[in-house]
Write a structure and sequence with these properties.
Blueprint (H helix, E strand, L loop, with lengths): L8 H23 L5 H24 L2 H7 L2 H26 L3 H21 L7 H21 L4 H20 L3 H25 L11 H25 L4 H7 L2 H13 L6 H28 L10
Helix pairs in contact: 1-9, 1-11, 2-4, 2-8, 2-9, 4-7, 4-8, 5-6, 5-7, 5-11, 5-12, 6-12, 10-12
Length: about 300
């Protein structure tokens, strides 16, 4: 990093806080283990949609919705991204409560490299030698895990692919992160609310009636845990060089991995460790290459990076 590059401290702490919250979320969803995963996701949708809508109304009035309505293509694609993010949330929550936190963390380690592959296939971007090496190492790690464990790590791949495609569509749309989440929530709110009512009417849900006040509050606050890190992230990326944000994103899967092994007691045998090591090595190659390229882009006058 050039000596002249200044980093906004508030933005930096916003990014760190967001990634730490995302990394500690397995503990939160584990506290809700008594609730079926689908109902956790539905509550997450309902409460986060209400919170984000309230935030947008307070900060932008009704103008945020008009901005999206003026772009019909964006509104249509946000319907697709709402489905993708719901799938991602549902798979992750199920994985946590089914004892697959480690494999879930693997998905978010792989995700940046899947983004690179999609950039090549969809956006026709070109990779340099280091990036191809990074992708190759990650692919070798996935193949090794498949061989060593006797099955494809479908949870990790499902999480990585769904979030990568989600990110690709959001990149193409170029819609503000919080506004995009607000529109996605608007699409999902009524179906999710209707499903929750159906569960309650049929006796399969116990919100405000059987799970207890503690569980009810956790389900409600899960909406805040969905929205707050994203708002913090949106705040950070406008103030911190994106290369640094890219490095910080590995806080989340690292915390998830440590929680899975040290707190939730999941097995981490040598066979799995070798596969992770190959993927980590690929990420190191990828991160170092990104850092070197960012240094080359810094002007001789040490102009601050603007992403």
């Amino acid at each position: 990093m050039s000596a002249g590059t200044r980093i906004d401290r508030a933005g930096l702490w916003g990014a760190v806080a967001s990634f730490v919250l995302w990394g500690l979320m397995p503990l939160y969803w584990h506290l809700l283990k008594a609730v079926p995963s689908l109902q956790i996701v539905l509550h997450r949708i309902v409460w986060s949609a209400l919170l984000v809508a309230l935030w947008l109304v307070i900060t932008q009035g009704g103008g945020w919705w008009r901005k999206v309505k003026a772009r019909p293509r964006a509104a249509a694609l946000l319907a697709v991204t709402s489905v993708l993010i719901t799938f991602n949330w549902g798979l992750y929550i199920w994985a946590v409560n089914a004892g697959h936190v480690i494999e879930g963390s693997l998905g978010y380690y792989i995700n940046p490299l899947v983004n690179v592959v999609l950039g090549v296939l969809v956006l026709r971007e070109r990779l340099n030698v280091a990036q191809w090496v990074a992708v190759g190492l990650a692919a070798a790690g996935v193949l090794w895990l498949t061989f060593a464990l006797g099955q494809v790590p479908w949870i990790a791949l499902g999480l990585a692919l769904s979030f990568a495609v989600y990110g690709l569509l959001r990149k193409i749309l170029a819609v503000d992160a919080v506004i995009g989440l607000g529109v996605e929530g608007a699409y999902l709110f009524l179906p999710a609310l209707a499903a929750l009512v159906w569960f309650e009417v049929t006796g399969q849900g116990h919100f405000l009636s059987g799970w207890g006040l503690g569980i009810d509050l956790l389900l409600i606050f899960g909406g805040a845990l969905t929205a707050l890190p994203l708002i913090g992230f949106a705040f950070a990326v406008r103030r911190v060089p994106y290369t640094i944000v890219g490095m910080l994103q590995y806080i989340s899967p690292t915390l998830q991995l440590l929680l899975g092994v040290l707190v939730l007691g999941e097995a981490f045998p040598r066979e799995r460790m070798l596969g992770f090591a190959l993927i980590w090595l690929g990420l190191v190659v990828f991160a170092v290459d990104g850092w070197r390229q960012s240094r080359r882009r810094v002007a001789p006058a040490a102009t601050p990076l603007e992403q």
